[in-house]
Amino acid sequence: MAKKPQQPSDRNNKQPAAARKSTTGSPQPTVTTRRDRRRTGTAGANRKAERLKQQQKQKQQWLYTRIGIGVVIVALVAWAAWGGFKAYQGYQVKGETTEFFGKDAFAAQHDTGEILYEQVPPTGGWHNAVWQNCGFYDKYINNVNGVHSLEHGTVWITYDPGVSDEVKSKLRNISDQPYVLVSPYPDMGNDITLSIWGHQLRLDTFDESKVEAFIRAYKNKQEYTPEFGAVCYGGTSATTDEAPQTVPYQQQDPDAEPIGGIRAADATATAQALNPEPTTEATPPATDAAAAAADGTPANTAGTPASAAGASPEVVIAASPAASPAASPEASPAASPAGD
Fold this sequence. Notes:
The chain has helices at residues 34-96, 143-151, 165-174, 208-218, 264-274, 288-295, 313-319; strands spanning 98-99, 115-117, 135-136, 155-159, 180-184, 192-196, 199-203, 261-263. The strands form two sheets. It has a six-stranded mixed β-sheet with strand order 1-7-6-4-5-3, with helices on both faces. It has a two-stranded antiparallel sheet with strand order 2-8. With 340 residues, it is of the alpha/beta class.
């Protein structure tokens, strides 16, 4: 008798319960094993750790972002404060600077001769056609060349020759930039003088912050430069052992408009015209008539026309040669040396 094939039991069936179906084709309830639960738990823990890591990374990035924003804000505030301080320094320096004339006064006035200036050190006026090269000088330069550099927008810093080596070293460093000219100048009455065309600031002692503020405020600025855009090189670097002008030229009228500078020849002619030197005709020697009047002796006027009686001494001398003791000692014994 043939045996019936045995049906596989559930005990020997290794197929997972979740994959088994009923004979009717309906799905069986899902059953998770311990291994499945362990796998699911590990994956969940990994996902949680990944989320935490991502959150920490985002927090760190946001922290860096906030720090960067803070640094930028601080830098902007500091920059604004520094700019405001520099602007205040410039305003303060301009308030202490003396203005003599504007940029359009006395520009392009060239001459080859000696010039006398109303300000010493000069701030503008007649000058030589060759400008002084910018930089530091330890000897005097010619004013006529330095003034031409002012016309190009240069800041001319003059220092007393007796300042310390430390000050000279700092001035040398300051001069290492375009449009800055530094040279010694005697008998200023102060240590440092800062000049630009038509403007000047005197400092009793060296003040680096004020020097730099003056340079920032005036150097090569169009509103202060007669020949804006002109260079401060390619001129002359000549020096001289002769001290420059130390006494300012003064006009006769103290209320007159400034002239900046004047040719020495014109100044001499003006001085001679206003203050003529005494001449022989203007101050003649005493006449016999004057001497006789002083002694109470009648004057010898026999040869003097009546029309000359009230004339000046010059006219009297010309009309009456006999009145001169040198011409006729005998004519007036009282006036002669022998009569004394």
